[in-house]
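Quick question, first post here. What does this chain look like in 3D?
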Amino acid sequence: MHTKFSIATLGSQPETLAALSDLIIDTVANGGSVSFMHPLAPEQAQAFWQASLAAADRGERVILGAYDGPLLISTVTLLLDCPPNQPHRAEIAKMMTRMQYRGQGAARMLLQEAERIAAERGKTLLTLDTAEDEGAAGLYDKMGYHRTGVIPDFALKPYGGLTGTIIYWKKIGRM
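> Answer (accepted):
Ran it through. Tokens below.
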């Protein structure tokens, strides 16, 4: 694992918004299935992250970032705002890592921190989904997530064509 990466909880600063927007544009341009189509306009990326950061400010989610020095290289979002009958659950979303940093441990560090925060907040179940084609399934398998199944033709890939999504879950914290 790369020890020079640092992990931080991200807030609504202009430089954070710019870095997150750049990261999601880069992810989509490289084929990452994170809800957007290529080309992703900077205004659309900024609007998405402004809304996400505002939700984080309200305590509905936690957005984590991994840095290599001053460069934001990876992010993950922990969604905490679940329905009233699911107070024990949180969701992992928007896991993204710059292409040149994949496989170096940043995403693993972010996922471990998201799990720690979720457990600290009393969550005992994490769920997530990832694209069947070129998603982070290998990471989730290695991190002890259980593969429930695949929903075929779930979403469009950034350059077109359908991909399935793999549904995962993991028990955490004290059960």
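The chain has a mean pLDDT of 96.
The first helix runs from residue 14 to 29.
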